[in-house]
Amino acid sequence: MARCVWPLPQKISQFAERYPLNPKSFAFLYANNSDVQLGCSVLDTAFKRYFSLTFPGYSGEKERIQDRLAENPSFGGYTYALVVSVQEGDCDGYPNAESEEKYNLSVSAGGGLLVAKTVWGALRGLESFSQLVYQDENNSFFVNKTEIEDFPRFLYRGILLDTSRHFLPVQTILKTLDAMSYSKLNVFHWHIVDDPSFPYQSRSFPTSATSTHVYTQTDVRRVISHARLHGIRVLPEFDTPGHTQSWGKGQPNLLTPCYHGGKPSGTLGPVNPAAGSSYQFMTRLLKEISSVFPDSYVHLGGDEVDFSCWKSNPDVRMFMSKMGFGSDFTKLQAFYMESLINITGSLKKTSIVWQEVFDYHEKPKLLSVVEVWRGGCYLCKMRKVTRAGLRAILASPWYLDQPGPTHDWSPYYNVRPLAFTGSEQQKQLVIGGEVCMWGEYVDATNLAPMLWPRASAAAERLWSDEEQTCSVSDAFPRLAEFRCRLLRRGVQAGPLSVGHCRQEYQDV
């Protein structure tokens, strides 16, 4: 019985002919003509990882996996091997915004062949191969003759985790990265700080961390390293000028003093955009962030800024008058964000902002990437953003923390990111989308069943051809099977309907 692949490949042909696989005599091997060979950190570790994923429950001979890698890539001694050929070697780098993830996979009687331009494409092909292998009623392993030509529809396929409202242990983040790779998601948007806490332990500002629960520099490096080995980018977000109440505890004079009746009220508002010291602080922090996080993108936030405190502060109002902003505080926010975008640009980083920054900006051409998140007609906003010539990321329909039944995945599957009126050039500016899991009511106890397999529904929408994946009823049995695979791999994915899996989640 052939097995399907989730997300659905662009082209897949499967046949009834099947081949037995014996874990004792199976190997992943580098092709002789591959530009990368033994010693490639990304694929060496992936071969070991995918051996266990391909043959779940098999415990013998694990010590021989490294021996297999070291042997000559021929079929001598193996009854079956998947030979991997990568055309461009980049084993020490990080996935980036332009990384090629295309791969071709051929499974036949003589063995399997996986060809990819990059190691990142090879990782996606290894995931597909692992999903093709299945067990019969006697627990023997098989794979059917299969031909796959595959590539992602969108280059940006992300998940946002919020680690300020509830701290997520590093191990929980690492397990989420594992599960992301199973669905071929490739961007971890780390909304690391917010109003409730500042859990990032800064080198430049060590007093900024405002909680006993913090991510040390070692923790951050561990997350970035784990993500790299799974072909996942780590996109940090340090949201300002709003959502910064926790920042003020470690950085005096950063936030705006609020006034009431002409006197300081004792409360603080957003980052003070009238103080030069604010920009000095942000320059130092962004410089550190740029050195710690290797990705070429950084998320600057810019959403939900409450102007009432700015309006009450006489120094801010004086600055507004000096700058000729009148009483339009959206111009003040635009000035602040533009300053940060310029700082980011000087550090050779591309900035992403939430959609309010676009809404308030008279010169949108200064922006680079806009993330559309607000409700209402999000496709209308996608049309406006792309009409301005800006790249867009869609998040609005994929807020999985919202109230509602966690088994209902169809609304996330039915999203059509390009279903707005616009030119082909506009559609090409949509670089992808992401699932957002905000942390008000989510921590390590319920994160996985809240995310999975609903996030996998969004993942197929962002990877696969839309015309081939337009039927919820056709997708349901495939997603149900994939959910069972997640359980067997140790992901506590929630149920979709009545029923059971052959192997249930074991860690409860």
From TrEMBL:
<keyword id="KW-0443">Lipid metabolism</keyword>
<keyword id="KW-0458">Lysosome</keyword>
<dbReference type="InterPro" id="IPR025705">
    <property type="entry name" value="Beta_hexosaminidase_sua/sub"/>
</dbReference>
<protein>
    <recommendedName>
        <fullName>Beta-hexosaminidase</fullName>
        <ecNumber>3.2.1.52</ecNumber>
    </recommendedName>
</protein>
<keyword id="KW-0865">Zymogen</keyword>
<feature type="disulfide bond">
    <location>
        <begin position="484"/>
        <end position="501"/>
    </location>
</feature>
<dbReference type="InterPro" id="IPR029019">
    <property type="entry name" value="HEX_eukaryotic_N"/>
</dbReference>
<dbReference type="InterPro" id="IPR015883">
    <property type="entry name" value="Glyco_hydro_20_cat"/>
</dbReference>
<keyword id="KW-1015">Disulfide bond</keyword>
<dbReference type="GO" id="GO:0030203">
    <property type="term" value="P:glycosaminoglycan metabolic process"/>
</dbReference>
<keyword id="KW-0378">Hydrolase</keyword>
<comment type="similarity">
    <text>Belongs to the glycosyl hydrolase 20 family.</text>
</comment>
<keyword id="KW-0732">Signal</keyword>
<comment type="function">
    <text>Hydrolyzes the non-reducing end N-acetyl-D-hexosamine and/or sulfated N-acetyl-D-hexosamine of glycoconjugates, such as the oligosaccharide moieties from proteins and neutral glycolipids, or from certain mucopolysaccharides. The isozyme S is as active as the isozyme A on the anionic bis-sulfated glycans, the chondroitin-6-sulfate trisaccharide (C6S-3), and the dermatan sulfate pentasaccharide, and the sulfated glycosphingolipid SM2. The isozyme B does not hydrolyze each of these substrates, however hydrolyzes efficiently neutral oligosaccharide.</text>
</comment>
<dbReference type="GO" id="GO:0006689">
    <property type="term" value="P:ganglioside catabolic process"/>
</dbReference>
<feature type="disulfide bond">
    <location>
        <begin position="40"/>
        <end position="91"/>
    </location>
</feature>
<dbReference type="InterPro" id="IPR029018">
    <property type="entry name" value="Hex-like_dom2"/>
</dbReference>
<feature type="domain" description="Beta-hexosaminidase eukaryotic type N-terminal">
    <location>
        <begin position="5"/>
        <end position="132"/>
    </location>
</feature>
<dbReference type="GO" id="GO:0016020">
    <property type="term" value="C:membrane"/>
</dbReference>
<dbReference type="GO" id="GO:0004563">
    <property type="term" value="F:beta-N-acetylhexosaminidase activity"/>
</dbReference>
<comment type="subunit">
    <text>There are 3 beta-hexosaminidase isozymes: isozyme A (hexosaminidase A) is a heterodimer composed of one subunit alpha and one subunit beta (chain A and B); isozyme B (hexosaminidase B) is a homodimer of two beta subunits (two chains A and B); isozyme S (hexosaminidase S) is a homodimer of two alpha subunits. The composition of the dimer (isozyme A versus isozyme S) has a significant effect on the substrate specificity of the alpha subunit active site.</text>
</comment>
<dbReference type="Pfam" id="PF00728">
    <property type="entry name" value="Glyco_hydro_20"/>
</dbReference>
<feature type="disulfide bond">
    <location>
        <begin position="258"/>
        <end position="309"/>
    </location>
</feature>
<dbReference type="GO" id="GO:0005764">
    <property type="term" value="C:lysosome"/>
</dbReference>
<keyword id="KW-0325">Glycoprotein</keyword>
<feature type="domain" description="Glycoside hydrolase family 20 catalytic">
    <location>
        <begin position="154"/>
        <end position="465"/>
    </location>
</feature>
<dbReference type="InterPro" id="IPR017853">
    <property type="entry name" value="GH"/>
</dbReference>
<keyword id="KW-0326">Glycosidase</keyword>
<feature type="active site" description="Proton donor">
    <location>
        <position position="304"/>
    </location>
</feature>
<dbReference type="Pfam" id="PF14845">
    <property type="entry name" value="Glycohydro_20b2"/>
</dbReference>
<dbReference type="GO" id="GO:0005975">
    <property type="term" value="P:carbohydrate metabolic process"/>
</dbReference>
